[in-house]
Amino acid sequence: MAKAAGKLTGRLQAVAVKALVAAGQPGAHADGGNLYLRIAGAGAGKWTLRYAIDGKSREMGLGPYDADGKAGLTLAQAREAAEEPRAILRAGLDPIAERDRKAAEAKAEAERLAAQAQAKARVFRDVAAEYIAAHSPGWRNAKHRAQLTATLATYAYPKIGAQPVAEISTDDVLAILKPVWTAKPETASRLRGRIESVIDYAMTLKWREAPNPARWRGHLANLLPPRSKVRGVKHHAALPWQEIGGFMVTLRKQGGTAARALEFAILTATRTGETLGARWSEIDLGAAVWTVPPERMKAGREHRVPLSDAALAVLATMAPLRPEESDGFVFPGAAEGRPLSSMAMLMLLRRMKRGALTAHGFRSTFRDWCEEATSTPHAVAEAALAHTIGDKVEAAYRRGDLFAKRARLMAEWADYCAKAPAEVHALPGIHIEAAG
What we know:
Elements: E1 2-3, H1 14-23, E2 27-32, E3 35-41, E4 44-53, E5 56-64, H2 75-81, H3 83-90, H4 95-121, H5 124-135, H6 142-160, H7 170-181, H8 185-204, H9 227-230, H10 244-252, H11 257-268, H12 272-276, E6 283-284, E7 289-292, E8 303-306, H13 309-318, H14 342-351, H15 361-373, H16 378-384, H17 392-397, H18 403-417
Antiparallel strand pairs: 1-4, 2-3, 3-4, 4-5, 6-7, 7-8
Helix pairs in contact: 5-6, 5-8, 6-7, 6-8, 7-8, 11-13, 16-18
């Protein structure tokens, strides 16, 4: 417990104090009530309060001495300043500890207010830009960054782009999502997730204290129907495998880069982006192998594609467009140094009066053909499509990429694509050994 200071008796006089400090007479001069004037040298005096707490002597500085009370405390001001710590002592507390506690609280409050002010300056658009810059090095390709940026720019920025991230509410998020939640459920779901990620980023950096208004579980799930209930999953429109021969006849009559790109994508059963991004440096014409690098694959792993004679023939038609001194795109677009746009394939399908189809859907056509018209082992068909293996045991045992078996499969596929459309009733099964 604290031992309270004695009652102020006022032993010192203002004139005497001034003389003592001017003379620089060292020592501690008592005024009463445990108030002291400490002098270290000429003109150097300071006020202190001595006390004992829990058996330990302590001395608390009140401030320097100043006869005018401008740069320090006069005698009268020092006596007044000593009253508060004396009251603290009477309450059984340590004045120094209380002073430190209040200083810490004041500092914390100042930091909170500063952070609050900083958060108000952090608008959603700027936070999103920082989030994208921080995470994009870990993304497989620039396409994801472009899609994320485009989604936010189209739907979120017009409503909350200039709004402080600390002030975004559930109503703000709903105002963004509701117009597209039923019309474009997949887009809306991705949009919600991207807004949530940006706000989570801000919360981690303490730019926002309130809960994330874009979170789904336990929050927006109570306000919006699940995406799966809004509309059934829409698969890529695919051509029945029995009709591929007739389609290829029509396709091969079409001129232009888009037609050759689509033909190549069908013959290799690759994704649209993989085909359009193909570069000549990835293709070994002598070995009839196209090696797609990991950064352009959905699974993030290198994928070797066996090239059938028909696929090589497509490349031969594109060879005249190959740059002489640089590694260019196999299917170049209209802009120099840019690949063909995916819209070019869609426009091609529309011109062919097949607008209901999608380029990606031909992968389904190939997979259905493997399943229904051949005896292709499941592992070989999945490897041809560069699908990841869901079964961890199967993935652990399958070390290779089944390239030789896939080469035979793609040759058979090319042959089937070249068949007359009416000759599909008695298609013999393709007998390929099971994967080992």
